[in-house]
Amino acid sequence: xxxxxxYVHYNKNSDLHAHVLYQLKSIRSIxxxxxxxxxxxxxxxxxxxxxxxxxxxxxxxxxxFDFYAWKEAIxxxxxENISVYDSVTLMNDSCFGPLFDLAEVYGRMDRDPCNFWxxxxxxxxxxxxxxxxxxxxxxxQSFFLVFKSAVTQSSSWRSFWEGMACETDIFKVIxxxxxxxxxxxxDAGFKYKVLLDTLDLELSREExxxxxxxxxxxxxxxxxxxxxxxxxxxxRHIIGEINRVSDYPTGLIEDYIxxxxxxxxxxxxxxxxxxxxxxxxxxxxxxxxxxxxxxVHVFYIDVWKKYVDYLKALDFSYSLFVxxxxxxxxxxxxxxxxxxxxxxxxxxxxxxxxxxxxxxLPWVFIxxxxxxxxxxxxxxxxxxPTAADWVGASWQQDIFDTMLAQAGKIINSLRENPNLGIxxxxxxxxxxYVAPVRRETEAPFISMMNDLWSRMxxxxxxxxxxxxxxxxxxxxxxxxxxxALKKIISIALSAEEVPVEPLPERSVLHALERxxxxxxxxxxxxxxxxxxxxxxxxxxxxxxxxxxxxxxxxVASAAQNSTPATQKSSSERLExxxxxxxxxxxxxxxxxxxxxxxxxxxxxxxxxxxxMELRRAREQQIRQSEPSSLKEKVxxxxxxxxxxxxxxxxxxxxxxxxxxxxxxHDPGAEKRLNLVISSLGRAQLFGGIATCTGIATVLARAxxxxxxxxxxxxxxxxxxxxxxxxxxxxxxxGDVLFYxxxxxxxxxxxxxxxxxSGSDIxxxxxxxxxxxxxxxxxxxxxxxxxxxxxxxxYQRGDDYLDCWxxxxxxxxxxxxxxxxxxxxxxxxxxxxxxxxVVFDPVxxxxxxxxxxxxxxxxxxxxxxxxxPRNLFWFGAQIIDGCLENEILDPDEWNIFLAGDDSIxxxxxxxGKKTINLGILxxxxxxxxxxxxxxxxxLIHTPHPGYPVYDVASAGxxxxxxxLYTKNSFPSSDNIIACDLSKEAFMDGMKKAVALAKDGPTRxxxxxxxxxxxxxxxxxxxxxxxxxxES
Length: 1030
Description:
Spore Coat Polysaccharide Biosynthesis Protein SpsA, Chain A, 45 helices, single chain, 5 domains, eight-stranded mixed β-sheet, alpha/beta, seven-stranded mixed β-sheet, globular
């Protein structure tokens, strides 16, 4: 029996995970045809990996989510072809598996009398869900659906897919399609079945959306929803159970979670402990091929002496780099360096550097040299001068035990696991048991971490605000691959950001310490944690947690959640606990040893340091808060306080259109022609975007290149593309894919990659898309399709300056729309004129139009109030004047406004009211033009605009304005051009009305007009220009 699978893939980071490949390989034998639909971009290596498992790869923008992806795949296959298969399977990659034999399930369900089936169903809920706007109907969950031929051959099936719209809201997709499909088919008389029937199970609404993982395993469900694992309270148990009852490689689960979820989340699901204390050696033959470097920043010579003992004990070759802050220390360090006879150190270098930035800046300073090695240890001499000696000593000993004593095994772990990018020590005992780090004390670092994340251009989406704890190398000591932390080297820290010692408690260096593991994760690498030598029991952790003071927020929360009957006793009990703990603390402080310690030199020094810190902070606060003069006091009183924002971030948030594109060079990618536009929609069916799409299509066909249409905001679909091609009369190109850049955030991050060969051609539809492209694409590969003097859109200011710079970028290449605009550029912008090719837009016409005498006549005013260049108010005054001066007879003429949905109905002189059509679809617009007798089409730019040609090409009479080089329209005698004055337009309208009523003359002009009607002919020069330049 022949089966087809339509498999939808999407990943927010544009990764192709190993569990997806395993899934496809495992089920390949079940299906006669597999179509892999990717809603996120695929690199050439991704496609190479997928190709053996599938019959076709269909790459598209994530428009309409998985349901619209299935619709487009069905449309590409054709309903007639789909219906000949015994079954059609719709599946997405939001599940792990198969955990158990899926082929056996297909065999069993093929024999079952049901018409369609799936893994799990969802019972009906009567309560209306606000996000959906409806209640949830009984339905089969959509991550896996199988439809037999009786369904796929039915009119209900076909109507469902043909009537589907491309929704941008996931809740609309759920409400209109996911929860409706099952009911539509049941209403048509079809029956369904599921492997796990939840109708009679006592599950909450939330549990019904994913069904608990342990329940799925108990019934041996072949596919497990990823959400079911993520939502389980003990996910490690579930992974262990999968390993016990199934042959599924659970490493695929951990690999997916480690790559897709930030480190403080993945640690809850994955084993991140590197057990270096086991007796089995991790060394293997040929391990010496990789190079190793060790960097130690030395500030305390006594601690360095301890380092030397550990370095001497290392049993592998390494290069040693030591940084310090003075020549005298450098001499002491050199005297203690391990000799080649003592250890495997190959290169030994001591570098003196300014005492700024503690160990971080010295490490960054020599990172170029360290980057030549495969594996590197970064360490420093740790001491805590503001705490008791044992604090720094115990901390440093934990580093010795984890990072140096276990160095050989760590290196071999890095060798064996190419995905491992950084290895850190576990939390030192002091911070784990004596002074545990709390979430609220970490909060002040978040803004600095976000700023650094942005400055380093990290790509993955990260949420520091909701992290319960940061996974970090306490003390900033760790093993790493240089490529994993490459972005740190790129950041330039100013002297103001890294002040001289003593550092404040919260600095950019502390923020970097918390970012190390996350930066490696952003680069695509995993992390491991080396446990301390003395493994503590979980009981110790529980005791430490329970002896922490109860914060006021906890007390308040407990009081609010108490029932009225117990509120008083609970509050009294909590208050008593706090009092008892305070008394216990005072008793401890009153002990002789404690008093002696406070009075000892160290205690007095620390007390003095604390007092001085508080005094300095208070003085600075007073200086900042108090104005120094009466004028400043008045200004402070009258000026509202605004939050301080990052300047770069503020610019990015207000210039979304200029965000750089995430162009990723892919050596294996095929050469493409790329069109970069704002969006596709009904407003783009005619006008500039449609023209750009037509140019790209003609060029792609002439050059024999696949076409990729990139939308910066909003999505694009095959249906929209075909509608545009039909509207402008160009045969669609068969090799087109779509990419949406709309997923980027306000700062331009989290944008999916655009995989590109070095020779790709890019067409930019505006100065801002050209600017965005040129930040990551060679200028000679960018062609700016310029359809207006874009400087005319702006008053003198920032936008004007940005546009001017874009239009005057050296060596830029332009495709200019119309000879009118080209002639204007010849005098105004010689650079554009010299580096450009020109074409004239095309307008098709039918010679079969009749011109009968009729009343009333139709006047079309191209009314766009939101576009100042279309002179809406001038046009309205002309129509009003024509009615007042009896040029237009209100009984003979209907006045239509089209082009803008925001314009109210207008009443002109004599009570004549407009008929407002707003923005029309192409079919509506085309049909309307056949009834237009007279069009008023204004545009205050050198370009003639399209509506004037639309009207003339459809057989109407068009009245438009002259401007600069646009002084006549010899291509059609049905176009009347007037100077921009009321007198000239009144005279022009008088001639136009007479011509509109003169059917024979109007038809004669129509048949002999010379408006271009073939895109291939009009764009032949553009094709030659691009071929020559590229």
